[in-house]
Backbone:
């Protein structure tokens, strides 16, 4: 059994237009939401055997907040270049490269590829389809497989979908 947590990075800042896309940090909302979602994962007793992140600053910052909440060593977070992509094929190839001793894998990346990957893995067009996972949104998928290399379309069962505004009453 494999469990994959696909996570869109928390909200990033556009305050400095001179920054390259990879160098944009989290904004005030992102700095609030990333620890909140880390706490929600911890409350669910999530066990992370590996945390992989896009090397973009906003994704890496999100990964650090989640790791902290899960008591996962910050130095063990892996920044993976192929997670900073718009290609679902490259993104899935990276996930399929995960060692089989890893049971729970957290992957922090970007839209639209995060939403596309979720739709591919659970089968889009059904009652649960993701047009755009919100920032710091988490989709947990379970696979009845022994190897990450076997992951394919429509093979994931959704365990949960959570995001910062879920369950927050309107003001």
Residues:
């Amino acid at each position: 059994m494999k469990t994959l947590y696909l996570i869109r990075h928390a909200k990033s800042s556009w305050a400095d237009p001179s920054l390259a896309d990879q160098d944009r940090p989290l904004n005030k909302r992102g700095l609030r939401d990333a620890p909140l979602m880390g706490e929600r994962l911890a409350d669910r007793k999530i066990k992370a055997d590996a945390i992989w992140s896009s090397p973009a600053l906003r994704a890496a910052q999100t990964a650090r907040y989640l790791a902290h909440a899960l008591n996962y060593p910050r130095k063990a977070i892996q920044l993976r270049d192929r997670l900073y992509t718009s290609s679902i094929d490259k993104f899935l190839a990276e996930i399929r490269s995960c060692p089989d001793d890893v049971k729970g894998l957290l992957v922090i990346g970007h839209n639209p590829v995060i939403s596309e990957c979720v739709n591919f893995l659970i089968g889009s067009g059904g009652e649960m389809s993701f047009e755009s996972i919100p920032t710091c949104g988490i989709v947990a998928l379970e696979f009845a497989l022994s190897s990450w290399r076997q992951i394919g379309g429509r093979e994931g069962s959704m365990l949960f979908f959570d995001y910062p505004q879920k369950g927050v009453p309107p003001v």
Q: What stands out?
A: Strands lie at 2-8, 50-53, 78-79, 104-109, 138-143, 157-162. The two ends are 41 Å apart (CA to CA). The chain has one domain: 2-11+21-162. The first strand starts at residue 2 and ends at 8.
